[in-house]
Amino acid sequence: MEKSTDHLSIELPKLHILMDRSTEDFLVRVHKRTMAGWKLGLSESFFRKILYVAGAFVLVILTAIFMSLAITAIPSIGHFGVSFLFGATWDPVRNVFGAFPFVIGTLFVSLLALAISTLFSLPISIFLGEYSREGAISTFIKSVIELLAGIPSVIYGFCGLFLLVPMVRALEIKLNVAPYGVGIFTSSLVLAVMIIPYSASIGREVISLFPSDLKEAAFSLGATRFEVIRKVILPYARSGIFAGILLSLGRALGETMAVTMVIGNSNFIPKGIFSPANTLASVIANEFTEATGQLYLSSLIELGLVLFMVTTVINILGKVIIHRMDMKEK
Amino acid sequence: MKELAIRRRIIADKSFKAIVVLLSFASILPMFFILFFIITKGISVVDWTFLTHLPKPVGEIGGGISNAIVGTFMLIIISTLFSVPVGVFAGIFLCEYRKGRFPYFVKLAVETLQGIPSIVIGIIAYIWVVLTMGSFSGLSGGASLALMMLPVIITATEETLKLIPDSLREASLALGVSYPRTILKVVIPAGLSGILTGILLGVGRVAGETAPLLFTAFGSPFMNFNILKPINTLPLMIFNYATSPYPEWHTLAWGASFVLVVFVLGLNLFTKVVTRKWKVQF
């Protein structure tokens, strides 16, 4: 492989037999095409360079994304410093920008959504990974969940706005709180449905990878299935399930459209579970096109930079945990 | 006494199974709610005029979504053109060079790229394209979607080409075929179906994206074939109409949702069928 095969060329043997005109034409065409093909062959070193450039391109893009976010956020970083993250006022009119309400809103919405979705995704992983690995029912559930993952987020937002919001409003009237309908609770519900597929699929994989000899050993000691799952499988699969939850947290933090449509867009620190709020992503979606003035725009971009860094760290962490588990398998 | 304990364990086992099954089935209910509402509310709106006419201003009954359908397909084509060449070559790179620090970082970069929130991708396309060219445009929307497709295509290419057995490329090299030709004419054609599936997956991922288009493609009420001007797409239109206060526009949004869901889910199903059929096997 090290030796370059650049200058290889072949000659078709000259055929000195009688043939009709069309056969001769055909052979000439074949010969020409073959030779053209050989000559077209890029040199090996050049081809390898192209591959390297393509690989490097991805790295360059990622670095460029980080750099452009950081550079365009400089006015805001220079003006507010660290207090940007902890300032409680976001007031475009007075040019005071503090991201604290959105940080709180994002954490509140994502963690609540994560809690709700884990309640459902964990049973799905157990069901698909242990109770019903094959067969019509598991194929059905698996396909429905895959479809769930394929529905665009704007559709979730739209359905949430017109189906869930009235229901939540009715609930709020019963509970005697301000009946906004939109707010943290509604967004968490929508978001929970959206991230179920991610944690469920990773959880299912981890549980179905469980070595069957350990399981059989537990069964042969007289353990029930419940006991096997609780005392043998779950402790073993813990880190994988955790990685799945972490990766869905990464998605939940960055989810924009569905949340933007049902969160109520309030730029104040949320007072409770039913109050309207804003997340980092939703405030960017709402205000970016209206942002006038350099400081306003660069503050919004700094929110994007924060979002980028947080999701990147979470994703890499989740991937590292899964990678370690794979290594353990081998 | 002992039997009681055993019975208690059996009951615990049974009830645990019941809870697991119940919650599993409960969590697929939202899917049916969503589909049910989209279909019942959307299907009555969708007809031939709806698909072939431009939207009308508030107050006028009727109007369609033709510009959004055209715009969606234009953006998909632009983003595919951008991302496929780079993605396939980067995928070949990751498959051919598996050891060493540089490929490891490239792989990490691909995974990171995959995890970037779509709204951040929108900001990037805004900074790179909109600010440079001075206006919202279909091109910038296509660029943002290309950034979202890129990691999907790279991963699919890499995973597929890894499945091609070494014996195939060794046979080709042993015949004296040069390395680039072995890759381009033996390995890639053998894995072509997998790469195509990856492209379909990528298209499925971006077809419903709204967030990166909010401040790149921006949306427009007119039919527009010029990629240097703002372009409307189905998801953008749904967002703008759904959040508007006018009931007529909500109806249009339900119709557009129906079309979008049929398109995206159809694409997903098609990809699944194709994956099974075209599966790279050796």
Key descriptive features of the protein:
heterodimer, A: 330 residues, mainly alpha, MetI-like fold, 2 domains, two-stranded antiparallel ribbon, disordered N terminus, B: MetI-like fold, 0% strand
Summarize this structure briefly.
The complex is a heterodimer of chains A (330) and B (282). Chain A has 330 residues and is an all-alpha fold. Chain A is built from 13 helices and two strands, in the order ααααββααααααααα.
Looking at this structure, what is the CATH superfamily of the largest domain in chain B?
A: MetI-like
**Number of DSSP strands of chain A?**
2
Low-pLDDT residue spans of chain B: none
Residue share in β-strands of chain B: under 5%
Please report which band the strand proportion of chain A falls in: under 5%, 5-15%, 15-25%, 25-35%, 35-45% or over 45%. Answer: under 5%
Q: Output the CATH topology of the largest domain in chain A.
A: MetI-like fold
Biggest sheet descriptor of chain A: 2 strands, antiparallel
* Largest β-sheet summary of chain B: none
Number of helices in the DSSP assignment of chain B? 11
Global shape of chain A: globular
Name the quaternary structure.
heterodimer
What would you say the CATH architecture of the largest domain in chain B is? Answer: Orthogonal Bundle
| The CATH fourth-level homologous superfamily of the largest domain in chain A | MetI-like
What ranges of chain A have pLDDT less than 50 throughout 5 or more consecutive residues? 1-9
* Highest CATH level, the class of the largest domain in chain B: Mainly Alpha
Gyration radius of chain A, rounded: 29 Å
Radius of gyration of chain B: 24 Å
- Looking at the structure, the CATH topology of the largest domain in chain B is MetI-like fold
Sheet/helix structural class of chain A: mainly alpha
Cα separation of the termini of chain B: 59 Å
